[in-house]
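Researcher: Here's a chain I'd like modeled. Treat it as a single chain, no partners, no ligands.
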Amino acid sequence: MGVLHLGQIKQALEVNYFPHLDFSGADQDHHRLSRAVAAVAMADRSGLSAETVSKSVTDHTGDNGIDGVIYAADRSTIMFVQSKWSETGKGLSSGDVHKFVHGVDQLMVSDWSGFSGPILARRSEIEDILFQPGTRVELVLATTSTADLATEQTEILDKFCGKMNDASDLASYVYLNQSRLHQSVVSSAGSQIDLSVNLRNWGSYREAGCVAYYGTASAQEVVEWHRAYGDLLFSRNIRGALSGTEVNASIAETAGADPARFWFFNNGITVIAESFEQAPFVNQKSGNFTFSRASVVNGAQTVSSLAVAASSRPELIESADVFVRFVTVDDPDGDFARLVTRRTNTQNRVGGREFVALDPEQERIRMEFAASGLRYAYRSGESVSDTAKGCDLTEATIALACAAGIDEAVLVKRELSRLWEDTAKRPYKKLFNSSVTATHVWTAVEVMRRVDAAIERRKPLVDGRDRSILVYGNRFVLWSVMDYFNVRDVKARSDFELPFDSGEIDKRANMSIDFISDVVNRKFPDAYPQPLFKNQTKCRELGPELAALLEAA
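Model: Modeled as a single isolated chain. Structure tokens:
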């Protein structure tokens, strides 16, 4: 990489991003190019258009080191970007990185002091995203320098991610240097990728002028594609390779733990290509193919997860196979190719939430609700239009979990789907079993709704760290109120009337809200609220103190 690639990057930025960028306050050429670098970095990481990401640039004297903010909804990740255009080879300084991380650190606790300009104008949007359950944070550092990050810089980033990842993987960072940025602009210009593959038990399908070849490929061969081309493999996909998701973890685990049967457990990979060549073959048991202008349009997570598994246990991948389908079209960027991409990525997926519908206890609870003129919706796609006359499975699960104990309340905050993972054992069986009646479910839901309403009333009245603690600690507050009233064991009334005084619920909810910040700041003053309430060990320490204050009040 050098002058030639730098010139190609500059031309791509000027052509594709400059027309959409606001250059207010960017008087010098390198300032304008730095904003364009922030935009291309956001496009690379989110898959969004040049026009969209250009509007998300926040470079300003009051940005506290944050030059761009973008949200990738497909992987529930908010990305904060720091960018720098450099023609001298000098990249980001440690001071730049420190300022950037400190700025992100402030946003994690809703501290907006010192911010101004475009990023401050997006305060409501950014806070709404950060407060959404399951939101991950990605720090993106982008520069046209060829240098790697220095040890001091990685230590700053590792320290931030370490604090955020206290209970689960919430934060990560990505460094895009000149080589990576060049790959990105080349990809968006339509790069040429030729994939060679040995297909076993292969076949073909011809229809409407298209030819598709399919068969079994070795996982090792797929991993080699990723090693050679990285995320450029997914340039025409609706999203790139995700990281840190349940699906990816499951794929990598299956490939490592049971590689011989990986073919049976995986949905496979779909590739769009412009043309193909087939080498001479003896029989249809094995054939060597080369597909030109190829792109993985479905199965990016399979490819990237196999690469992860191969890096940790390469010997296990040797016996793993994967189903691959190559669809050859005259125009890989045309309408039919886009249809293949869209349709193969929007087929229905069945997860733990759907398997809950097979549990007979759910139907029993629904019938008990119905007998009293109320509705309980537990199947996917069902909903309750009037919440005064019923509830759904999600509400019931959250309410019962927070009534069950601290561990279950933490799990609600960390990964709600885990509660539905296996209907034959805990934690699901602790929440839904033959002793749990519809009136018990309704009682827990009604208490939850009153506590949630109290929290919503208080949110506009608090700011900064106290607001973050209240938002991220909402289920912990709910647990404390459930614990105070012993909702888990109380005998629910058969007429579906709340067995507690509603005014007393509101009173105890407000007390818990008053106490929670003091308890957290005394026990864990330096902890980020978001991961704190996903940490079972720390919440077990906080619980007795909050419960004692509520009991004594």
